[in-house]
Amino acid sequence: MGVALYHYFRNIDHAFQQPEVGLRLKFLDRRYSEFRPVIPDRECFLRSFIFSYLEQVVDRIDTHEEDRLLAAVRELARRADHFQWASEFSRRREAFERLIVKIKGWKRMWDYPTSRVSYNRGEFLLEFFSSYDTTDDSEKTP
């Protein structure tokens, strides 16, 4: 919880001088196992949501969800091409498809002994998302 406090308040002593902060943190600490600090921009909720969802996808043994996602995204891409929607959808779709294909390939590596293949599910997703550029939407002013 200390990392989350520092991320949001920078000065922990100052944060605890605000009574509502302590009460809220006590409530959150009882109900959640961990906090994931996010950069507060226009896409922070979506990034946090998709990251949490993908953690669950990665933790599954089978690849049924990945296959379902790829089929759904490709159907949307077909419709987008039909209506000639902007290329931004295409760029994001391609990035998402690459991630899902990587997850499927990564799951195939689980069949090998861990002495030959080392993996960490959370680090895998963090590495992918840290290499993904910010989108134009987050840089636009209202």
UniProtKB/TrEMBL annotation:
It holds the Pfam family Peptidase_C65. InterPro entries: Papain-like_cys_pep_sf, Peptidase_C65_otubain, Peptidase_C65_otubain_sub2. GO terms for cellular component: nucleus. SUPFAM superfamilies: Cysteine proteinases. One of its GO terms (biological process) is protein K48-linked deubiquitination. It comes from the Eukaryota. GO terms for molecular function: cysteine-type deubiquitinase activity; ubiquitin binding. PANTHER family: OS02G0517600 PROTEIN, UBIQUITIN THIOLESTERASE PROTEIN OTUB. This is Uncharacterized protein. It comes from Oryza meyeriana var. granulata.
